[in-house]
Amino acid sequence: MAKGYWFLNLDVVNPVDYITYREANLAYAQTHGFRFVIRGGDFEQMEGIKRHRNVLVELPSFDDALSLYSAPDYQNIRDLRRNTAIADLAAVEGFDGAQLSPAPPPEGTPEHPRGYWMTKVDVTDPDRYKDYVAAAAEPFTEYGAWFLVRGGRNHLLEGRGRSRYVVTAFKDVATARACYFSPGYQKARAIRQEASVADLLIISGYTGHELPPA
């Protein structure tokens, strides 16, 4: 079964009280057995709309991503976030189809975290977008990209969203950046920009250690 995710981009407006939400959210995650793939971390906004904090939470399924958000014991935690941050939050379905790379990148460590692309897309020309997907296959394969999310179902829970979500994992941030700036991907990107509007950032994965939000 495909995983589910909370795909979250936010601006913290009350950093002191946000820490209370953050710790309550972590306790809820531990109680319900899901994990943080991305939790803050250094990032670089490559395209589109920027929020200053980015989070990706992995849940057992898309249905769980919807139901756990609506669960009565999560409502107080959700309200803590709403009182301390402006958030765009969507439940998205994980990808369990054929991958371009033979194996996922190794799990990150505090010294060498994974790198990720977090991407939100509105496709304006579906036929031309297929050309982008085909053109991007070669650089993604070359740099060992692995899709956690690639289209699939999504449901906007808070704020603003787009119609398509993609999360791509790489062995580290340097590899994620190298793929983005490679000649092969830049050619594919030019096609994508003809066929869609996107928000795309490159960010380090969460490995259990995080500084308090600034």
Concise account of the structure shown:
This protein has 6 helices and 10 strands. It is of the alpha+beta class.
Topology:
Elements (H helix, E strand, L loop, with lengths): L3 E9 L2 H18 L2 E5 L3 E5 L5 E7 L2 H9 L4 H10 E9 L21 E9 L2 H17 L3 E5 L3 E5 L5 E7 L2 H9 L1 H13 E9 L10
Antiparallel strand pairs: 1-4, 1-5, 2-4, 3-10, 5-8, 6-9, 6-10, 7-9
Helix pairs in contact: 1-3, 4-6
Task: Give a verbal description of the structure.
It is a single chain. This protein has 214 residues and is of the alpha+beta class. It contains 6 helices and 10 strands. The model has no long low-confidence stretch (mean pLDDT 94).
Radius of gyration: 17 Å
Question: What is the H/E string?
Answer: EHEEEHHEEHEEEHHE
Alpha-beta classification: alpha+beta
Percent helix among the residues? 25-40%
What is the terminal-to-terminal distance? 37 Å
As a percent range, the share of strand residues is: 25-35%
Major sheet = 5 strands, antiparallel
Low-confidence stretches: none
Which of globular, elongated, flat, extended, rod-shaped describes the shape? Answer: globular
Q: For the residues shown, what is the average pLDDT?
A: 94
Strand order of the largest sheet: 2-4-1-5-8
Number of helices: 6
Which descriptors apply to this entry?
single chain, 214 residues, alpha+beta, 5-stranded antiparallel sheet, 6 helices, 10 strands
